[in-house]
Write a structure and sequence with these properties.
single chain; Rossmann fold; globular; alpha/beta; 15 helices; six-stranded parallel beta sheet
């Protein structure tokens, strides 16, 4: 048996900037322990590499990366979009034919699912999709693209989604079932250190500095904390990168001048991210729009208590598992109030964090996918 895995997120660098790519690589490596796998993904230049005995990556040249930067509403981007779509479609078909693939797993519904569907039309190879929120919430709002999305989901052998609510939305579009498949990476945490139970606490943010991820809301919240709150904070670390970098660094610099213990870091690779989280008591997830972010499962693995805005599945997950503080809304003042509660009440019970982490594992995701193909 051979599986072709198609993803627009597979990393070609390993500097911490790959976002979803980290868990895509982990999923691919874990899957390749069960069956031979070839990954098809975009990169600045076309090339092939052998990551493991059973795992090959075939990169095709993309006009621009990340592909999300190819805004379909910008007519000047259409030549790049069309050339990338052609290369992706051609490469997926070539790999499926050359490797005689038995199944294609598309991460994500678009454009990967479209390439998988077109390859299936020519080879008879069945395919599955794994949808992210960006598939449904962003691309699904574009009239013409929405039609392609519905067609892909309806023709797939199976559909998965990385969120509970998102799975229901996929079902509504496809008219068939959609299984929850959590997106998580393996941080390699073997033991979690004891956390501070009394102030001062260590707080952190790790993620893209993008409006959707709410980094500006977090900055507003930090500004709204009073002197008594900051007396309970040993340090506040901000790590990541993205389009709001100038804003993040300028506002953090301004707060540091007033004596607040804020440290700003760039992107973190896997090992650095693990150490970063192992040295935090609370991690803030201030997103405006989200399904279940990878950082949530990262926190559970590392034993960090979560402070999160009430978006996507986070309200249900925090309430059901009792692993942190839920903000009243996605606003700076609401985040500040949740941070204040966390500082007063302390971290979640380590046992609860460990139990919740069991539901978010790469091995479990591979087991679910293989079972959908009829393999235990």
């Amino acid at each position: 048996m051979h599986i072709t895995l198609v993803s627009t997120s597979f990393p070609f660098r390993h500097d911490g900037s790959e976002a979803a790519g980290a868990f895509v690589e982990d999923f691919s490596r874990c899957l390749a322990q069960r069956v031979p796998v070839t990954v098809v993904a975009p990169a600045p230049e076309a090339h092939e590499i052998l990551l493991d005995d059973n795992l090959q990556v075939t990169y095709f040249k993309a006009a621009r990366l990340p592909l999300s930067s190819l805004n379909p509403f910008n007519p000047f981007r259409w030549p790049s979009i069309l050339s990338t779509m052609r290369r992706g479609r051609r490469t997926v078909l070539d790999v499926v034919q050359k490797r005689k693939s038995d199944h294609v797993m598309a991460l994500w519904a678009l454009p990967s699912g479209y390439w998988a569907m077109k390859a299936g039309e020519q080879t008879g190879t069945r395919f599955s999709t794994w949808a992210l929120g960006s598939d449904i919430w962003s691309l699904g709002r574009i009239p013409v693209v929405r039609g392609y999305l519905a067609t892909v989901l309806r023709r797939a052998q199976g559909n998965f989604a990385d969120g509970l609510k998102l799975a229901r939305q996929v079902e509504a579009i496809s008219g068939s079932g959609c299984a929850f498949l959590p997106s998580s990476r393996d941080l390699g945490v073997t033991t979690t250190p004891a956390r501070n139970q009394t102030p001062p606490f260590r707080l952190a943010f790790l993620g893209r500095w993008h409006e959707n991820k709410g980094i500006d809301l977090l900055l507003d919240a930090m500004q709204a904390l009073n002197a008594e709150d900051w007396a309970r904070i040993a340090r506040f670390d901000i790590a990541g990168g993205g389009p709001l970098e100038k804003l993040v660094r300028a506002r953090c610099d301004a707060m540091r001048v007033t004596g607040k213990p804020i440290r700003v870091h760039g992107y973190l690779d896997r090992a650095a991210a693990r150490d970063y989280l192992l040295n935090a008591d609370f991690v803030v997830i201030p997103s405006r729009i989200e399904s279940i972010p990878v950082i949530f499962s990262d926190c559970l693995q590392a034993g960090c208590t979560v402070i999160a805005t009430p978006v996507g599945d986070l309200p249900e997950l925090l309430t059901r598992n009792d692993v942190g503080q839920l903000c009243q809304e996605a606003s700076g003042l609401a985040i500040a109030e949740a941070i204040r509660r966390a500082l007063n009440e302390g971290p979640a019970e380590p046992a609860r964090l460990k139990e919740a982490a069991r539901s978010f594992s790469v091995t479990g995701a591979v087991d679910t996918f293989m079972s959908s193909l009829g393999f235990s």
